Amino acid sequence: MDKLRYYSYYVKTMFFGYENCYNGFYGSDEDIELCPNEHNGYLSSAESKIPDEDTSIQANGSIHTNIEGEKEKEPINDAEKVGLSSAWQAGWNVGNCMQGLGILSLPYTVRQSGIASLITIAAVLLLGNYTSKILVDCLYEERKGGGLGGKPRKIRVRTSYPDVAVACWNKWGSHLLNIITIVDVTAVATLYLELSGSLLVDTFPMAGLSKLSWICISAFAVLPSVLFKNLTRISYISLLAVLAIGAMLFSVVWYSFGESVRWNIKKLPTFDLEEFGISFSVILFNFGTQFIMPGVEESMRERDKFGRMVNITYVIVAVINIGYAFFAYLTFMDDTQEFITYNLPTGFIQTTVSLLFVIKSLLSYPLMFFLIVTSLESMQLRCLPPCNPPTPEDRLPVWTIIFRFMLVLFTLLLAIVIPHFTLLMGVTGSLTSPWLDFIFPCIFHMTLKRGQLNLFHIFADISIIIIGLVGGGLGLFYSIKVLIRVYTVH
Predict the structure, then answer these.
(1) What does the H/E/C string look like for the chain?
(2) How high is the pLDDT of residue 427?
(3) Cβ partners under 8 Å of residue 450, min gap 6
(4) Any bridge partners for residue 339, and if so which?
(5) Integer distance in angstroms from the first to the last C-alpha of the chain?
(6) Residue 288 CB neighbours (<10 A)
(7) What angle do CA 381, 386, 391 make, to 5 degrees?
(8) What is the spatial distance between Cα 490 and Cα 477, in angstroms, rounded to a whole number?
(9) How remote is the C-alpha of 345 from its chain's centroid?
């Protein structure tokens, strides 16, 4: 399971409601089954809380079930088991989600900012570790009594990030989150087209086609997806992304160690504020996973291990990515390219990794504009007619087809107008990631837990909000500045 599956889960909980999503978007078994139920490794809220004839509620508020022919199981409280995923499975999901498109450019950020880039990766992951935990904490409320020894017990009263936003700012919180998500996902869809074009033009130079031509071909390839009614097959096939990233990491690290005799740590770039601002935004864009954390925590068999799982996962991701970015830069030095695949020796490995990333991008693209359409419709804008058919048996409305076609053209236009992968990623990362990953979780934490936080949490929340505002503003300023410079020069 990867980030796309959690995006799908978000779409369902946000638009169709938690209680109605476990049978698919329209109650059809044909669609993706991502909401918690026993068929996909989860238990639904109703199934986990409603006792039957063989179920008793313990004094501490936990549910104790006796099933004939089975051993009695120890009671568990509300902060523990509901899903069926182990802590290791949950950690694997989170780790996969962190390895996004930006991983191709991490060595390039070291070329731009030197040791500051490596420190930023560690700092972003450290702060992301904290905000992931407090966001999940916002899903719970404490109720007096019912716990062991008369202590308050935690009740999970929310299921998703939008639920937390609604609890703080009513429907406007959900609208704001939707708007930022639309901006973020539109940029991701654009980056998919741009990445495909960039990789294909270098993979097939004998074709004689320009990058612009390959971008248009990529857009044409995803055009039939505007007619999709569900995304089941695409979500499962997107597992190719894991294969592509694994092959790329292994290839780069293996080649880097083979060239270790050329390493020279003294040649690391000096600090430059402009380059650092762009690198900071790219790193933010790559490691933002707070949006999926409520779904991950909900899927866990033992929810009390969520904090430990997050700690271990973030440490492993930090070690792998810092090592990969550092070793790759030491190997290629000033020749480090925007996409590290360009630095790999031409041949089977480079071609295979590039094609896997292209396939991943084209298969992921349909879900991006599907999420945009669903986010817009969930806002109930009067200027937009319904974007989905009344029933799954009905044909897609003409408006839906036209709107999705226009959306593909819009992202194609962006990819053509802004053909600079790192800069576009920097602008997007500085616009959306600080808010979704740092600022909103801290604001929601201080709002919903008012009167329950100690000085450390208050200081940490305020500090992270300031870091998000300053870092995001810095990244946005310099990313736009460099974009303007690029277009002025050309």
Answers:
(1) CCHHHHHHHHHHHHHHCHHHCCCCCCCCCCCCCCCCCCCCCCCCHHHHHCCCCCEEECCCCCEEECCCCCCCCCCECCCCCCCCECHHHHHHHHHHHHCCHHHHHHHHHHHHHCHHHHHHHHHHHHHHHHHHHHHHHCCEEEEEEECHHHCEEEEECCCCHHHHHHHHHHHHHHHHHHHHHHHHHHHHHHHHHHHHHHHHHHHCHHHCCCHHHHHHHHHHHHHHHHHCCCCHHHHHHCCHHHHHHHHHHHHHHHHHHHCHHHCCHHHCCCCCHHHHHHHHHHHHHHHCCHHHHHHHHHHECCHHHHHHHHHHHHHHHHHHHHHHHHHHHHHHHHHCCCCHHHHCCCCHHHHHHHHHHHHHHHHHHHHHHHHHHHHHHHCCCCCCCCCCCCCCCCCCCHHHHHHHHHHHHHHHHHHHHCCCHHHHHHHHHHHCHHHHHHHHHHHHHHHHCCCCCCHHHHHHHHHHHHHHHHHHHHHHHHHHHHHHHHHHHC
(2) 86
(3) none
(4) none
(5) 43
(6) 24
(7) 145
(8) 20
(9) 30
Please state whether 61 falls in left (phi above 0), alpha (psi between -120 and 50) or beta. Answer: left
Torsion of CA 61, 62, 66, 70, to 10 degrees: -160
- pLDDT tens per residue, range 185-234: 888 889 889 989 988 998 888 888 999 999 999 999 988 877 766 555 55
The length of the chain in residues reads 490
Rounded CA-CA distance 250/164 in Å is 39
Cα 402 from Cα 409, distance rounded (Å): 11
Q: Pick the more confident residue, 364 or 165.
A: 165
CB 130 within 8 Å of CB 456: no
Tell me the CB-side half-sphere exposure of residue 310, using CA atoms within 13 A: 24
Q: What is the pLDDT of residues 231-285, one digit of tens each?
A: 555 555 556 666 767 777 888 888 888 888 888 888 888 888 888 988 898 898 8
- Please calculate the CA angle 398-400-402 and round it to the nearest 5 degrees: 70
